[in-house]
Design goal:
The chain is globular, with a radius of gyration of 22 Å. The two termini are 44 Å apart. The relative contact order is 0.10. The protein is built from 20 helices and 7 strands. It is α+β, with helices and mostly antiparallel strands. Strands 1, 2, 3, 4, 5, 6 and 7 form a 7-stranded mixed beta sheet that branches. A hairpin with a 3-residue loop joins strand 4 and strand 5 (67-71). It has a domain at 7-218. The model is unreliable at 2-7, 9-16, 102-109, 119-150 and 189-194 (pLDDT under 50). Helix content is 58%, strand content 9%.
């Protein structure tokens, strides 16, 4: 994946640490599920950020007023879109119900990685991943997430009722949510150390499950069919996640050659690439593109393969096609900018700056984008703007001393009173310590 690029995975320094992962197709699919629910809750969909946490447990939580975190274990457990939609509906109920007061204020406008670091009480660092994987690492034992924030049973029931109303308003069934709840209830008697984190952050009760069952018996939408195109998109999303996150041998077992579905071939193309079986990887992804030439995500994945194989010119061609097919998608734009800064041919740095500026109209809190922008400015020998970008990058990670140092250096080379100079002053202001007299 450059899950992020097409796929950016946050790096892990050692076993047991949590990672956030980014991927245009995965995030666009989840956003497709979530937007109608946010609108039903009278929330601005653009104000809520959805993040994917790479951990094989069933969990989800909301924090900071506008951040929703979904775990890959929950996604892999879902057999259909409706299960994920049910979980998102419940979490939306927490946001709309104002159940987040303990984490509001200081973290209201924080970046996702700062939120994750704060709620887990862990350190934060940045590592450069291999290939397309520039990532931000949330460092700390994954088990810490299990004790994150225990909502009361009253709040859980309230979020359930709100979520069920959103499902009704959007004409969707609650059966997926019920299925997940029933599966989790089977482990309710497990000891805490082996219990799924969702049980600790979202305490279950027989009454909650009964309430959902009663709702299903009354709702006119309980047997509403899921759109076939949404089911197919769900299968492709899971196949892509599995291909990038799991070892190739696991992918070959789950998606054997005998399975010639699009999702299975998609997963295998990624496994072949990871296994350095280049002929098989390109034949498979090219076959998918031949069947669906208008699928920008296939072009994106091919662009990443080419980039990671050092075939920069071909990668740029593939990624430009992806951006044409999915205009304005910030993560695809970031990957194209990454390839351009690595290729560094005449004009590439200027194009990368232009592309990243466009991407950050909607992703100005993504540290990896600021890291890339700093590199692009450095290639242009525009050191003040490189320093300002680095200051933004450090600030989003909570590294205030570094952010302040970079902002001070940037302000010395920027035109006093300009927009960029004023932004440097903003960073200096928000990173000032009491001893600075600010």
């Amino acid at each position: 994946m450059g899950l992020g690029g097409p796929w950016t995975r946050t790096a892990r320094a050692q076993s047991g640490q949590l990672s956030l992962i980014r991927d245009a197709e995965v995030e666009d699919t989840i956003r497709l599920y979530a937007t109608p629910l946010f609108e039903a809750a009278r929330l601005d969909p653009d104000s809520i950020r959805i993040h994917i946490v790479d951990e094989d447990v069933i969990n989800a939580f909301v924090a900071g007023g506008r951040h929703m975190f979904l775990f890959t274990g929950m996604l892999f457990e879902s057999e259909n879109p409706n299960t994920v939609i049910g979980v998102i509906a419940h979490e939306t109920g927490h946001i709309a119900g104002g159940h987040l007061s303990k984490l509001r204020g200081a973290y209201e406008d924080a970046s996702a990685i700062a939120i994750l670091s704060a709620v887990l009480g862990v350190a934060v660092g940045v590592l450069g991943g291999g290939g397309a994987g520039i990532g931000v690492m949330a460092s700390g034992q994954g088990v810490a997430a299990r004790n994150f924030y225990a909502f009361s049973r009253t709040q859980e029931s309230s979020a359930d009722q709100a979520g069920l109303s959103y499902l009704n308003e959007t004409h969707q069934s609650a059966r997926g949510l019920l299925s997940l709840m029933e599966k989790l209830s089977e482990s309710e008697l497990l000891v805490s150390s082996s219990q799924d984190p969702y049980m600790l952050t979202h305490p279950l009760s027989r009454e909650r499950i009964q309430a959902i069952q009663e709702f299903i018996s009354r709702s006119p939408w309980s047997d509403a069919p899921e759109p076939e195109d949404l089911i197919e998109r769900h299968h492709r999303m899971l196949a892509k996640l599995f291909g990038f996150l799991k070892a190739p041998r696991q992918t070959y077992i789950r998606y054997p050659e005998s399975d010639q579905s699009v999702s299975a071939r998609y997963a295998r193309s990624i496994a072949y690439h990871k296994d350095h079986l280049d002929d098989e990887a390109y034949q498979t992804i090219d076959g998918l593109i031949a069947e669906e030439p208008g699928n920008g995500y296939f072009w994106e994945v091919k662009g990443q393969f080419l980039f990671e194989d050092g075939r920069y010119d071909e990668s740029v061609v593939a990624l430009r096609e992806a951006t044409r097919l999915i205009p304005g998608q910030p993560l695809i734009l970031q990957l194209l900018a990454r390839v351009l800064t690595e290729r560094a041919a005449p004009g590439d740095a200027a194009e990368a700056v232009q592309i990243l500026t466009l991407a950050m109209r909607t992703e100005d809190d993504d540290p990896s984008a600021w890291m890339l922008l700093g590199k692009a400015y450095a290639l242009q020998e525009n050191l003040p703007m490189a320093d300002l970008s680095s200051a933004e990058f450090a600030y989003l990670l909570g590294r205030n001393d570094e952010a302040r140092m970079k902002a001070e250096r940037a302000s010395q080379g920027l035109v006093s009173g300009s927009v960029d100079w004023l932004r440097a002053q903003d960073i200096l202001s928000v990173t000032a310590t009491p001893s600075d007299g600010s």
